[in-house]
C-alpha cells in the first residue's frame, strides 16, 4: 500500500513537472499552468479561479461579447463551456463550426475580454443536451458500445477530441501558447454511473484510456475529470459537481480542490414548475467552499440560455434553459443573484493571497459554527465565520470580538475583524422582469398550409420495409423527431376494433385510413405507454399509419443511449368487441423518417408554397402557419408569446427557435408553497423548494435573439409555426423583456441603490416602509409595514426620472410614526 502511494506521489510530481514543461511554449505572452495541493499555479502564482459556464450554442455569436463582459463585470475571471459533439458533427465527418457553433469565435471573445477559459470537451457532456452530446449516428457503427473500452467508440471519441484540440492549438488557444485555456476536461461524471455499467472491467479500461488519450494530446494544461469518485486515473485531477462541494476532497495528495459545477438553479422540463435557488444559498455554498480550501469554482450555469432547434435532451427538457442563472435566458442581469455574488467575488478576490498561500487555522465555535483563519507570513490574515445551522442564528465571540451570524450563512472578514460580507444579507436590488407588449400585439395576419400527409396514409411510400417494429433512434438516426410506421390489412365486412399500441414514447399519433384515430404522449419519466383508440375498419384494404415523435433524447444514466424510443416491438394490436385479436406486430411495416414539410424546408418560406390567407383553421393538427411582423424597437430581448398553441416548432426568419408546448401545464409541487434559503437546497426526492409557476403553462415565451430579426423599420420578419397537435395562433404576439419593479432592503447606514436597464428610467417610488413582511417585489402586501414619509419623499426626489440612483438610509428616515426601526424596504417602478 505504502509502495503504491509512493509510486502515485512520484507519478503526480512528474505530472506536475510535465504539465509545467509542456505548458511553456516560447513566446511573449505564454502562460504556464501547473497545480499543487492548494490551487492552480499560473505563471508561478497560486490563483483562485472564479468561473462561469456559458454554453456557446445556447446563445448567438452576437450575444457572446455581452455575456462574457457581464461575467467579467460580475467578478469572474474565467469562462467555462462544454463542447457539443453532435452539433459539430451532425453526420460522420461532416462538420459544423458556423453560427452559434463557431467555437473558435467564442474562445476568441473570451480571450479578448482578458479572461481564462475552461474547455470541457467531454465529448459526452450530459448537460440536458440531446443524447448528452453524442451523435446518434454512432449507433450505426458495428460493434459500437458507448463509453466503454471498445475500438469503435474510442476511435470516434479520439478523432473528435483531437479535432477540437487541434483547432484550439492552431488558434493558439491554450495558455502555454498565450491563449486563455487553463484547464481541460475529458468525459463527464463517469464515476456516477460506472458501477452500474454492464462490464466493469471494460469500464475501468475505458476511463483510464480516456485519461491517457487526453494526456497524449499535449495541451500543456491539466486535465480534469468531474465526479470520478472511484477509480481515478493518476494523470487527471478529480473534481466535484453539486449544490455544495466544501466537504469534497480530491484523491491524491497534491490536487487542488476544484468545483466544476456549482448549480446556480436547475433545468426545467415541460411538466415541471420553475426552479429557483436563492442567491443567499448560492453565496453560502461558494463562501463555504473557499472557507474550506477550495480554490477553483465554476457556476453551472452563469448563463443558461436557450435550447434552439432540436438540441434539448432529457427527454422533456424545455426550450428555455434559463437555469435561474445570474444572467437570465436572454442575457439580462438577474438581480439580486448577480449582484449578491459579484459582491462576494470582490471580497474573495481581495483575499486571494491569503486563501491560497495562508496557513489555515480552524476554530469550532459549536458543532456547526466554525471560524477559519488564513494567515500569511507577513502576519496579515483573512477570516470566515460560518453558521451551518438550518434555522439557528448565533452570537459568537471570535478573537475578542462579538459577531452575530445568521443561520445558514457565512460572514467574510478580509481583515479578520470587520464583516465585509455576509451571504444571507442581500444588499443588491431585486429586479422583476416583465414581458412588455409590443406593436405586433394581436395584429398578426396568418396564412396557413396543411402538412402533406396523404402519402403517409398508404403503406407504399417509405424508405424501407421490415417485418418488425423497430427502435426509433437507430432507425431514423435522430434526423427528425418523427418516424412513420405504416402497414395495411384487408378485411371483409365493416368492423369496430380497439387499436392498442405499446410504445416507448415519447408521442404517438395513430391514423386509420387517413383519419386521425387519436394521440397520446408519455409522462415525463416512465416514457412507456399504451395508446388505445376505437377504430373502424372498412371492407377491403385498410391502412394503419402510426407516427411516433421524440421530444429530445435521453442524456444521462448508465447506458442511457440504449434507452429506446418509438414503438420497438409493440405490440400493435386490433381487438374486436368479441375479443378477437389481430396482432399487427409482425406485419410488413413501411418506414419513413420525418415529415414532408421538414423535407421541403417549409420553415424557410421559399417561394412557390401555397400559403392560404383564407379560412385559417384552429385546432387543426399538422398545420403550418405563417405571419409577418415588425421587430420590436429598442435593444431589449424579444420573445414570442405562444399562448393558445398546442405543440410544435417555431421559426423566425428561418431560424429554429425550438420546440414549443404551451398546452403542457406544469404540475403543482409542494416546492411552490415554501421557500426558505436556509437549509440544504436540492431538486430531487420531493425536497424541492422555492419553485414558481405551479399549474401554469410550462413555457409560454420563446426567445427570439435580436440577431435573427431585421430591425430596420418596415423590414419584414417572418414567423412560421409548425403546429403538430392543433392550436390557435390568434393570440401569438411578440414582446420585449424589461425590468419592471425594482426593490431593495437597507439597514441604517446602507445606501439604497436602484437601477433600471436598457435606457428605461424610474417612473415612481411605490414603497418605502419599515418591517414589510408579506409578499414580494412588485407585490408587497400593503399595510404589512409602516411607511416612512421622509424616506419616500427623499427617494422619490432622488430617483424619479433617473436611470439609476443611490440614497443613503440615515436618521432622517426615522419618521416619528414608524419610530424608525429595522430594515427599510423600497420598491420603485422602471418604465
Ligand atoms: C450534472 C451534469 C451536467 C448537467 C447537470 C444538471 O450532473 O454534469 O452536465 O446535466 O448535472 O444540470
Automatic annotation (TrEMBL):
Keyword Nuclease included in the entry's annotation: no
Origin: domain of life: Eukaryota
Signal peptide: 1-23
GO molecular function annotation: beta-galactosidase activity; carbohydrate binding
Reactions catalysed: Hydrolysis of terminal non-reducing beta-D-galactose residues in beta-D-galactosides
Keywords: Apoplast, Glycoprotein, Glycosidase, Hydrolase, Secreted, Signal
GO CC annotation terms, alphabetical: apoplast; plant-type cell wall; vacuole
Subcellular locations according to the entry: Secreted, Extracellular space, Apoplast
Listed GO biological process terms: galactose catabolic process; plant-type cell wall modification
Main location: secreted
Claim: Transmembrane helix is one of the keywords in the record: no
EC number: 3.2.1.23
Enzyme class: hydrolase
SUEL-type lectin domain segment(s): 746-831
Family: Belongs to the glycosyl hydrolase 35 family.
PANTHER family (UniProt xref): BETA-GALACTOSIDASE RELATED
Name of this chain's protein: Beta-galactosidase
UniProt source species: Brachypodium distachyon
